[in-house]
Amino acid sequence: MQKTMMKVAVLTVTFLFFHVSNAKAQNDFNLNAMTASDIEFSDELNQKGIFDWIKKPKPEPLDAKEWTVMVFMNAKNDLSEKKFLGLTGKFSQKDIAEMKKVGTTDKVNVVVEYGAAGKKTKRMLIKKKNGFFSKDEVVYEKFKNADMGDYKEVVDFVKWSKTNFPAKKYMLVLWNHGLGWLDPNLDNHTGGTGTSKGILFDDETKNYVKTLELGEIFKETGYIDILMMNACLMQMAEIAYEVKDNIGLLIGSEETMLAQGFDYKRLLNFMNADTSFSDREISDFLMSWYREFYNEGMELGPITVPLDAVGATLSTIRPQALNNLPYHLDRFASAAMRNNDTDAVKYAIEHVIRFTSIDAKDKEKMLSSYVDLYNFTKLVTVKLIVDKPSSHDTIQAAEDLMNFINTELVIRKVGINGDKINSYDYSNVGGIAIEMTRKNKKTLAIDLSSLFTTKYSDLSLSKASLWDEFLTWTDEVWAQ
């Protein structure tokens, strides 16, 4: 039997036009004396994985391309499941299918670490299928028990990608659920879906990347040109401040995002069309696409569901500009507290645009603590100009903060539709959210520390600014 299999293997190698190196070809054919390096595969056949039983695929040393896009896709949760009788769902598979319509090119590498519920995690290069014998992905690694909620797994993936698929610039996409800076305590929790979700949540290990660990990722991986958060509620000052020193451009949403995520086919086509695009150019592309997506509606099987009642935001920010954020926050907060501008602050707390609550049933967002920073500052200013113009230093500090957000921090932003229940018009958002006093005064007397693992005072922004002290003051003002 072994001899028969060997003969079949030799015939197969000959039939598929493999050839032996010149030294071997000039002598008698001796299969036992051959090494893996003596067999050369054509590019097309090497993509197919037909000979994986001979040799496990390994990344070959490559010259640096213009970009490497790295997608850390944690779908070990409901994002890999079918929804609505199979008409929708399996969002991770759909996003990968979008990537494969473009695939890796001579300019852009597309690398994915993909984990789905109940399956092995795999690390792969995404390709475009080109002919019957070609393959649209090359899997290099498989992990049976990978913890995709461990920040070290992200670090390992990025380092592996940089080593094996070098480029002049790098984009990293963190793909999962998101809950802003709040890190839920999972001691009595069942999983990461619904309101319990956190960034990069792994339902199988019950682990996820904490806010402070986000900053640690990029300290260990080194500089990333673009960080894209394909997750809800992540475009916050507290989060951005953790990663600011090692990121060139930050893309994300202040509000929840539909599970469809970004259009990866269009994104990759944009990147390949002109790899020297500027931050403003990719920002303009993304804002235009987001508006178009919501205007056209969502395909749900054979029908298109209108999205004109769904509120959405998207923005791009310069992380480096965040070095100046504590200065502006401190001037504004100090002046408001010093001048005892309680009425203006109360007005802003009551009317500011708030984003999705920690409780899905909280339609009036009484428990929501994420607010648009620009909108909050503007409401304080408007109220002071009308009722207390003597607080000119608060007004000036507020105007300077708004100008900083508009001209230095946020490159582009889009607010679509809004929240009709609370009369929020998302066209008024400024592009970055921040923590603020909740409207429900009953929660002020409750110790929420047992619900979350990260203390607000431990965040880097809290240590660099007076915003945590300002929140203590606004809590007291609102409780009066």
What layout of secondary structure does this protein have?
Layout: H1 2-15, E1 19-20, H2 22-25, E2 39-40, H3 43-46, E3 65-75, E4 82-83, E5 88-89, H4 91-100, E6 108-116, E7 121-126, E8 137-143, H5 151-164, E9 167-175, H6 211-221, E10 224-230, H7 237-243, E11 247-252, H8 264-273, H9 279-296, E12 298-300, E13 303-305, E14 312-317, H10 325-338, H11 342-351, E15 370-372, H12 373-387, H13 392-409, E16 410-416, E17 418-419, E18 424-425, E19 433-435, H14 460-464, H15 467-479
Parallel strand pairs: 3-6, 3-9, 9-10, 10-11
Antiparallel strand pairs: 1-2, 4-5, 6-7, 7-8, 11-14, 12-13, 14-16, 15-19, 17-18
Helix pairs in contact: 4-8, 5-6, 6-7, 10-13, 11-12, 12-13
Question: What features would you describe in this structure?
Answer:
Helix content is 35%, strand content 19%. Helix 5 (151-164) runs parallel beside helix 6 (211-221). A nine-stranded mixed beta sheet has the order 8-7-6-3-9-10-11-14-16, sandwiched between helices. The protein has a two-stranded antiparallel sheet with strand order 1-2. The protein has helices at residues 2-15, 22-25, 43-46, 91-100, 151-164, 211-221, 237-243, 264-273, 279-296, 325-338, 342-351, 373-387, 392-409, 460-464, 467-479; strands spanning 19-20, 39-40, 65-75, 82-83, 88-89, 108-116, 121-126, 137-143, 167-175, 224-230, 247-252, 298-300, 303-305, 312-317, 370-372, 410-416, 418-419, 424-425, 433-435. It has three domains: 2-40, no CATH class; 65-277, Rossmann fold (3-Layer(aba) Sandwich), CATH 3.40.50.11970; 323-479, no CATH class. The chain starts with a helix and ends with a helix. It is built from 15 helices and 19 strands. By secondary structure, the chain is an alpha+beta fold. 41% of the residues are buried.
